[in-house]
Write a sequence for this structure.
């Protein structure tokens, strides 16, 4: 029999654990001022990024909303989203100083999307991403240091959005949430997930797709390899299987991959971001399926910051290695709240995308 005092202490301890920090992969930064258009908000955010001495805008523009993959016009709601992708040299250098592989956490993103209550602003949560990417670090002190650097970037993003919008950002991690222990241990969330939620403890999640020995100037070789990938992407032609996977109005354009980010740490890494129209639209359609309500058919736009897909080219010892995450892994990281039904319906999508990305990069 547990003594009363010990029992009370046990209940307190369990409550303390349950009430510990929880992290979402996205952060809700609140609504834009009432009446502000998507275009005006995008300009304000772009100007704020340009005014920050550390941030470099990589790309911006309308994303492909779920309407793109809805053949029946009656299933569309006309709502739009806008994505700004940017980077910070100091942050990239701090990640690369731990190891060049950690620069995969270095693409920053702010999203805007139209919803019934107004124009919502979100971001990819940098601290959460740093905690997931770095969960193979052996020393807790190193792990927490990397996470704190991500938290500092998150605070700068909040300040930037507040300045641009003239508001006080909510800064709330969006559910579903993961607790500290689950992230540190790399525990999966999706019932059908193959392997843990980790980039480097299980390298099958973030697999090697190309490697070559370093010969001479590593910076020049990194750049040449990135240029080669860019040329391959430009020349990419989708397979028949890719074309037939889901209706889209303009397959020749909607299935072409494009580069939306290229951030460099000289001599250590180049982080590229790639995306395409149908993949964005279908992913956000899937993310919102179970939350559709009335004429609001695009709640999945709140996952806008899942894109672009990261391609990491980096120095590892005497080699240059190239990695890109398995799409099932990315689904667990960015879309695990979509629900069992959605994942079952689109169970073949990750493998199809894995093949398409690899063909595009390697020119197969």
């Amino acid at each position: 029999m547990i003594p009363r005092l010990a029992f009370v202490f046990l209940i307190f301890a369990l409550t303390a654990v349950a009430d510990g920090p929880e992290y979402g992969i996205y952060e809700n930064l609140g609504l834009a001022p009432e009446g502000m258009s998507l275009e005006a908000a995008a300009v304000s955010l772009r100007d704020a990024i340009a005014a920050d001495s550390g941030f470099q805008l990589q790309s911006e523009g309308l994303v492909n909303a779920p309407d793109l993959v809805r053949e029946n016009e009656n299933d569309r709601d006309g709502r739009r989203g806008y994505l700004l992708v940017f980077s910070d040299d100091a942050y990239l250098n701090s990640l690369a100083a731990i190891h060049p592989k950690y620069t995969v956490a270095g693409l920053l993103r702010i999203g805007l999307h139209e919803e019934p209550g107004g124009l919502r602003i979100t971001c990819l949560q940098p601290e959460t991403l740093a905690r997931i990417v770095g969960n193979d670090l052996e020393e807790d002190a190193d792990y927490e240091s990397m996470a704190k650097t991500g938290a500092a970037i998150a605070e700068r993003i909040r300040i930037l959005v507040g300045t641009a919008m003239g508001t006080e950002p909510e800064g709330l991690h969006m559910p579903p949430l993961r607790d500290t222990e689950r992230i540190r241990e790399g525990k999966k969330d999706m019932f059908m997930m193959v392997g843990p939620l980790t980039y480097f403890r299980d390298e099958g999640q973030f697999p090697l797709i190309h490697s070559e020995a370093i010969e001479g100037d590593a910076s020049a070789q990194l750049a040449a390899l990135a240029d080669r990938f860019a040329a391959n992407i430009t020349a990419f032609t989708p397979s028949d299987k890719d074309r037939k996977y889901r209706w889209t109005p303009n397959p020749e354009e909607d299935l072409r991959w494009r580069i939306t980010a290229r951030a460099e740490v000289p001599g250590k890494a180049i982080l590229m971001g790639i995306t395409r129209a149908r993949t964005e639209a279908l992913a956000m359609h899937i993310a919102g399926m179970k939350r559709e309500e009335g004429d609001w058919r695009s709640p999945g736009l709140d996952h806008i910051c899942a894109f672009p897909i990261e391609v990491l080219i980096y120095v590892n010892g005497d080699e240059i290695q190239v990695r890109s995450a398995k799409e099932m892994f990315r689904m667990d990281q960015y879309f695990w709240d979509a629900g069992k039904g959605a994942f079952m319906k689109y169970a073949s999508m990750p493998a199809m995308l894995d093949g398409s990305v690899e063909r595009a990069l390697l020119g197969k």
